[in-house]
Amino acid sequence: MDLVYENSVSAIQTLQTKFHQQKDVFFTISNFGDPRHAFLFYAPLVYSLDRRIGTKLMWVTIIAEWSNQVLKWMLHGERPYWWIYETQVYNKTGSNTPAIQQYFLTCETGPGSPSGHAMIYAAVWYTLITAFLEKSGAVSKNSKNMLVSVSWSIYTVLLCVVSLSRVYIAAHFPHQCLLGMIIGCGLAITMSKITLDSLKLKHYVMATAGLLGSALTTYAFLRALGLNPLWSVDRAMKWCAKQEFIHLDTTPFFSMMRYCGFLLGMGISLNSVFNKKTEEVPFSTGMKITSAILAIGLVKLYGRVPLPRYNINFFYFCAFVSNTILPFLMIAMAPYIVSRVWPAVVRQMGKKKRE
């Protein structure tokens, strides 16, 4: 792999040098592809507009993040910004260590392969585009339909652009992004064949326990082999140019708390009294849009609540609880509030018109 890494580092150097003036554009694109937006934006938006597609999207996001974390532990992928200092390649050749720029988005603390940005959004956007094409009726027509071609072209361009931004900031090697794209797309195709509508709370509890157990088993297995699953965190702490660039919400355990907590909260919300009462009310287009705005607003406000950082274990516990509450706000509370307030507002407006 050293040859692959060395050639990739040269490509990163060239990219950073030629497009130095456009670095803010790359930062924006990289932030746009942040996996947390799948939970904080796409999930509340899509679920509010279409519950079936929204539920599938959340499942795809959760499974993609779980798969990404486990694969990262198993594949032990390096990241460019620390590999250049750890490798012996440049000592053997007598070359100077490449001058790769680090930015505030560079210092991810998990292993590098496969890219989480590329993998999760390959799965998320595949689900969204497939749903869009099904609703438009394009998939039932000739496969050469222009809408189909344009949609998948946009999908490919988006993934390539996000991957390029990750390479630019030296968070990933190109092959790690490509691997993430392939796995994410394959995962979404597989998940699209699974029916999720009839799942009960017990199924969500068992699934949460299964994902948590499998991740912890992988961790324990690597420890038993004498390996340190958190080696990448040590590398990040050692080689990140500025310690303030390192964030706890990029660690493998935070990712674990996010997808496990969100899945459990999703099950609780979908089987709650609030959700059952909401399902009895036919939602108009206006109600769906209002619900989406309210859900995103609640999630944004809730996201401003800081997690305590004085104890690492308590921090992860709070992250789990926080991500359990999060889907309750978007799945149960926002639609319930709209279902109760909207009819009252409509009646009041009708009464004023009659007067």
Describe the structure.
The structure is a single chain. With 355 residues, the protein is mostly helical. It is 74% helix and 0% strand. The protein is built from 15 helices and no strands. It is globular. The N and C termini lie far apart (78 Å).
Tag the structure with descriptive keywords.
single chain, 15 helices
Q: How confident overall, as mean pLDDT?
A: 90
Biggest sheet statistics:
none
Structural class: mainly alpha
Order of helices and strands: HHHHHHHHHHHHHHH
Helical content class: over 70%
Flag low-confidence runs: none
* Tally of helical segments: 15
Oligomer: single chain
Strands, count: 0
State the shape.
Answer: globular
Approximate strand percentage: under 5%
Distance between the termini: 78 Å
User: Radius of gyration over alpha carbons?
Assistant: 22 Å
Question: Topology, pairings included?
Answer:
Elements: H1 2-18, H2 23-32, H3 36-49, H4 51-75, H5 80-86, H6 89-93, H7 116-136, H8 146-168, H9 174-191, H10 201-224, H11 231-239, H12 252-270, H13 273-279, H14 285-303, H15 312-354
Short summary:
This protein is 74% helix and 0% strand. It contains 15 helices and no strands.
